[in-house]
Amino acid sequence: MALFQTMGNIANDPQEKKQIKGDAEKTKVLIIGSGPAGYTAAIYAARANLSPILYQGLEPGGQLTTTTEVENFPGYPQGVTGPVMMEDLKAQAERFGAESRWGIISEVDLSNRPFKAIVDGTKLIEAESIIIATGATAKYLGLSSEEKFKGSGVSACATCDGFFYKGKNVAVVGGGDTAAEEATYLAGLCNKVYLIVRKNYLRASKAMIEKVERTKNIEILYEHTTKEIIGSKVVGGAILDNNGKDVTIEIDGFFVAIGHTPQSQLFTKWIDTDNEGYIKTLSGTSKTNVDGVFACGDVMDSTYKQAITAAGSGCKAALDAEKFISSQE
After folding, report:
1. Is 315 a catalytic site residue?
2. Which residue segment(s) compose the domain that 75 sits in?
3. Catalytic member of 157, 190, 296, 301
4. Does 160 qualify as catalytic in the annotation?
5. Active-site residue 157, yes or no?
6. How far is CA 257 from CA 21, 137, 154, 158, in A?
7. Of residues 160, 190, 296, 298, which has the active-site annotation?
8. What is the CATH classification number for the domain harbouring 225?
9. Annotated catalytic residue: which of 161, 252, 298, 301?
10. Which end of the chain is more exposed for a tag (fewer CB within 10 A), N or C?
């Protein structure tokens, strides 16, 4: 997953052309972004002899590289760290001939085939098809202490990391459906769940509010904001602000559930997205509104956001790309 920025139509911008070094490199499949979706797409595309080129972006391996233990991905009975699993997927793709590269796709032009992409502002690639796997980034509060404890008690995914806090006390920040769902999920594992809500009400749906309110081990802290997360090497508590009064809670895990930002900005000139920026795909497929451009993983999934569902959608994207390329030959 990477951070991208659209910078204009590279096909028709003479100033941009002056920066390009050498002739355009041509490929049948260009995969933009890594992580479970991108690497799985690379595995399938490579096994289909499409010789895909994958650019990893600013965050090679995606959000899982910030996760310590992954225990819910099939094939790892003893669990695996996020970075190790991503290296395994990358190695598997490269075994079949995929080329995984460092670099950032800074611009694209999807107006005509072959599609054009600029790497790091200097290299031009022309692709018969493109698979978008740029992912989504979790929104955080922006606290320095939050950054300090990422992977050591701070998480943005209860279903990913909740098991590690079985029988312990945790906190969830947020007031919408996502926060309510995370809190009720964790309540089934943890001793106690604090739901930290900035306003004096929940923004979640009525059904979710009722579910939270009848869950005995969830305590809703209305009109509370997080000032600091405290602890030594791992999270040990949090200092909250309640209308000017400091409140300290003792917790082992701190879950942020205030939403995600899909990394689709680079493509919105050509690709349809929903109101939140998630790429729209044809139901049951990875196809976008542009023939030959496919999307997979969290950049198009606003619901599940799991490594295994991202990997499955990467498989679909590669198979759809293979069929598309075959139909053009």
Report:
1. no
2. 14-137+260-328
3. 157
4. yes
5. yes
6. 43, 12, 11, 9
7. 160
8. 3.50.50.60
9. 161
10. C
